[in-house]
Amino acid sequence: MVSDVHGNAGDLAKAGEGADALICLGDLVLFLDYADHSRGIFPDLFGTENADRLVELRTARRFDEARDLGRRLWAGLDVDRETAIEAAVRRQYAELFAAFPTPTYATYGNVDIPRLWADFAGPGTTVLDGERIELGGLVFGFVGGGLSTPMRTPYEISDEQYAAKVEALGDVDVLCSHIPPDVPELLYDTVARRFERGSRALLDALHRVRPRYALFGHVHQPLARRMRVGATECVNVGHFASTGKPFALEW
Question: Which segments constitute the Calcineurin-like phosphoesterase domain (predicted)?
Answer without folding.
Answer: 2-222
